[in-house]
Design brief:
With 138 residues, the protein is mainly α. The protein contains 6 helices and no strands.
């Protein structure tokens, strides 16, 4: 029996989500007032950061198997902020606290400053319906 290769690894998913967050931040910066689309965009950022945070262990599993503990721990520490900001963002959105959301945006912009998303991207609008998904009980 041959090996099964998963083309959608945690790293590729993380890259796709990061590009989606950057695109969403661009669109969010263009907004003049709070609309349902604005809520969807902020909710998408929170959900994407949570998904990135949950995928970190899958990314470092191969390193830990080969006893690269230092490399795995360093990677975890580099991405520890993602889960923290996701929780802050979710709490702020559920309270309708847009001042907190606005203070989190520069932190995210700093983290993703080197990410490039071309104008001809194929990401579409991944944030559609994200606020409704954020409100669902988990």
């Amino acid at each position: 029996m041959s090996r099964v290769i998963n083309p959608d690894s945690a790293g590729k998913e993380r890259t796709r989500l990061i590009k989606g967050i950057v695109l969403c931040m661009r669109e969010l910066a263009k907004q003049g007032r709070i609309t349902p689309e604005t809520k969807d965009q902020a909710a998408f950022i929170a959900l994407a950061l949570k998904s990135i945070s949950e995928g970190i262990d899958a990314s470092v599993a191969a390193w830990e198997k080969r006893d690269y503990w230092v490399k795995a721990d360093k990677f975890r520490m580099e991405w520890m902020w993602a889960g923290q900001i996701a929780e802050k963002m979710k709490a702020a959105l559920l309270k309708d606290d847009w001042a907190t959301v606005a203070t989190l945006m520069p932190q995210l912009a700093q983290k993703f400053s080197k990410v490039v998303v071309s104008d001809n991207h194929r990401l579409g609008t991944p944030w559609v319906g994200a606020f409704k998904q954020l409100n669902l009980p988990r």
